[in-house]
Input
Amino acid sequence: MASQVEARLAALGLTLPEVATPVASYVPAVRSGAYVYTAGQLPFVDGALPRTGKVGAAVTAEEAAELARICALNAIAAAKSVIGDLDQVARVVKVVGFVASAPDFTSQPAVMNGASNLLKEAFGEAGAHARSAVGVAVLPLDAPVEVEMVVELRNA
Output
């Protein structure tokens, strides 16, 4: 039986993807006590990046927000890979978003709203979280965005 979170995602026309294979020496998510920490998730779709380049140059802020949404979906899948049932998430505690930014691009928070909005849609009020949106020079594989999150579990 699908979790309530997965049912909310399905209502949005989304399904959880397979967890992306790490591009280096790490695991996609780790559980420690009552928390799950995801590694930074790139916007992989079927194993490939749909866009590459800097936001504010090759990628628009709107496109980047959609890519951040994909990153958040991948982060949810990574969390599920270590807890099994997404209804065990009591709260999304913290999200960190990285935006590969052109030198004059300053709308990183708007880009990361793509991820934040999906987490609120998926987890309801438990999806409201603290967040950092950081502009960086470059991300792995020339990805425009990367998202990581920390979730707290119920009954851990």
Summary: The chain is about 30% helix and 25% strand. The domain at 4-153 is CATH 3.30.1330.40 (60s Ribosomal Protein L30; Chain: A;). The chain has one domain: 4-153. The first helix runs from residue 4 to 11.
